[in-house]
């Protein structure tokens, strides 16, 4: 049976089970259900661990963004300023290609206003967010994806279909309806790759 790996932050953790359920008769879907992929450098490390543990994959669907653009006090700059973000995106792309998998990159979902939210996966980190940052990081990631001929799953555009962007009360994470829509779009693109 074909194998799919889902990588990414807490947004991925919100839709991964739905993707697995949607694809259960078509492929095996893997993800780290206990650990958030956080920022791109951490996802690079996590991908390596999962490749070592599970071997080759046919498709890797992946996102990074919120943690990369986060300015966590007392730092005064993003965890990964744009040049570092690009560097780690390209490192992840290289590792996925070395594994032999097709790649789908998912954009970061929009936020309604600037703010802070506690990460909901037990990391005890507050994520600072601003939609201008989201747009900038998404534009950068889409440019890298275009240069590398990588399929983009535009979750940003998908969430714009609802006036509150399918955001839950914390302003960062999604409602169950939002996660289900993300899963449906991810599953559709994964099936196209398979």
From TrEMBL:
Keyword Secreted set for record: no
Q: What PANTHER family does the annotation carry?
A: SGNH HYDROLASE-TYPE ESTERASE DOMAIN-CONTAINING PROTEIN (PTHR30383:SF26), THIOESTERASE 1/PROTEASE 1/LYSOPHOSPHOLIPASE L1 (PTHR30383)
Coiled-coil stretches are: none
Task: Tell me which UniProt keywords the record has, alphabetically.
Answer: Hydrolase
InterPro entries recorded: Ester_Hydrolysis_Enzymes (IPR051532), SGNH_hydro (IPR013830), SGNH_hydro_sf (IPR036514)
MF annotations from Gene Ontology:
phosphatidylcholine lysophospholipase activity
Q: Which residues form the SGNH hydrolase-type esterase domain?
A: 79-181
- Protein's UniProt name: SGNH/GDSL hydrolase family protein
């Amino acid at each position: 049976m074909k194998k799919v790996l889902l990588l990414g932050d807490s947004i991925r953790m919100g839709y991964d089970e739905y993707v697995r359920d949607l694809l259960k008769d078509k492929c095996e879907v893997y993800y780290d259900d206990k650990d958030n992929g956080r920022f791109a450098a951490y996802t690079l490390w996590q991908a390596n661990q999962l490749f070592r543990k599970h071997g080759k994959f046919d498709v890797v669907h992946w996102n990074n963004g919120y943690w990369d653009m986060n300015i966590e006090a007392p730092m005064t700059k993003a965890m990964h300023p744009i040049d570092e973000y690009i560097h780690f995106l390209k490192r992840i792309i290289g590792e996925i290609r070395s594994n032999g998998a097709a790649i789908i990159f998912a954009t970061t979902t929009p936020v309604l206003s600037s703010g802070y939210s506690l990460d909901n996966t037990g990391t005890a980190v507050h994520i600072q967010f601003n939609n201008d940052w989201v747009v900038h990081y998404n534009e950068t990631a889409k440019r890298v994806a275009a240069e590398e001929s990588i399929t983009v799953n535009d979750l940003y555009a998908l969430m714009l279909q609802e006036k509150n962007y399918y955001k839950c009360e914390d302003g960062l994470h999604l409602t169950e309806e939002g996660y289900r829509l993300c899963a449906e779009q991810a599953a559709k693109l994964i099936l196209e790759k398979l």
